[in-house]
Each structure stands twice: as structure tokens, then as C-alpha cells.
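haha ok so turns out i had the wrong file open the whole time. this is the CORRECT one, sorry everyone. sequence first:
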Amino acid sequence: MRMFASDLDRTLIYSNKALDDFGQSAESLIGVERKDDKEIAFMTSKALKMLKEISAQMLFVPVTTRTFEQYQRIFIFQESFNFPYAVTSNGANIHYNGTSMEEWSCIVRKRLKAECALLEEMMERSQGFELKGKIKTAENLFFYYILEEKLTAAAKEDIIRLAESFGWRISHQGRKLYFIPNPICKGEAVKFIKDREGINKVFGAGDSVLDHDFLKICDYPYVPNHGELAANKSLSHPYLISNNAGAEAGEEILNDIFNNIQERV
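then structure:
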């Protein structure tokens, strides 16, 4: 049995801000996420078609740092797809047929108590760096800054060292700087589903360092060339890097996966 586990933002779907970063426009794209009656994230029409084809032929599992509430704004998943699993909050939660799996949540809670500093402590320590921006929490599990100023390489290295010393890590994606405790991990969640379903072949896609956790267990790991992960050569060198950037990278990756599975039918 095969599975396609994929990150969403800046991998398969693109907000207006992400499109701006790549000098692209939503004009010719398909809206896939809606907030306050406004479409705010997009895919190419071909990418959406390919995703439907792929999900009809293997188990598709969205794997996102979004909370479940944020994930549900992606209306195409409710309207055009029928898949049982979704991994949200960076792996803290696995939803099966729309319901959070308590078995998995219990495993994560136990590890959080045993393996890392508390959320409140890390938030307090992060403020010692005087980061300019808005701080937000996600389901009292992790937090992130929406930065107002560019983060220098030296400051980033200092923050990485602090996070690592307390069992946390960071990911810098656009204006967002995430602080995530190590037990909250996309890779462990994907492995749990893989084992539960008896999967023997895994395709994966993701753009950030947080996606490395599950891409390293994939047989076919894809990375868009514009992302944090592609820039980190020490992590991304064994991965399949797209030629295109932005929304076209998502289309290219899906098209390649579709062609790959067609060749093996």
C-alpha cells in the first residue's frame, strides 16, 4: 500500500504573501482556502487535478503545522476529497475521519512532560532576544513570532542554540519564526500512520526544516527549490528538489509523483 504525505503551505498551496515572495500572482490560480468569505490560498488548476488523481490511487495525508481550525479553512479538502487522516499542529494531533486520535495525543503529552522545557518557560526565554513582532501560540503546544524585522544569521544561530539546550527547535519560514518542542514532530506522526496502515511505499513533499522529520522516512522525498529546506544543503542533498519555484513547484512535484505511479501500474 502506498501513501503520499505532504506539507501544505508553500509546498502544495500558496497564500498571496507567499506568491508575492516569488513574484507570482493568484490571478490564474484556483482558490483552495477561504477566510471571512475571501479566498486566501491557491494552487494551479493542474496541481489540483493531479492531487485528485494521486489521492484516488493512494492514501493522501496532509501534514501541516496549522492547527486543526486553520486546516479546516482549506475548503477543497471538504468539498473535493475523501481521505481519512490529517496531521495538524506539526504532528501533535492526528485526526482520523475528523476526530482527534486520543491514542496518539496521549503519546505526545507524555513525551512533552518528560523531554523538554514547558511552553511558558520557552516563551519567556525567547523574549530575551528582543525579537520585534507579534507572538502567537498554537493550541498551547508551541509558539511563533510574526517578525517585523529581518532575522540576522547571528541572531538565528543564538536562538537555535538556546532552543536546542531546552529540547526545542526553530524553523524560519518567511516572516514566521516557529519554536517547536522536539516531541511535536511530523515524522513521528507520519510513521505512526504508516505502521497503522501497513504502508510499504511513501511519497512525501515539504519545504521547511520541520518537514525533514518525515521526508527522511519517505522513499520519494520532494522539496520545492524555494524553501528553507532546499537552502539547507546538509539536510536536503538526498532529496528530489524541484526545478520551479512557487505555485509551479507544487504542480511540478505532483505531476512527477503522478507520472511515477503511472509507470508502476
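The chain has two domains: 2-108+184-263, 117-181.
again sry for the mixup
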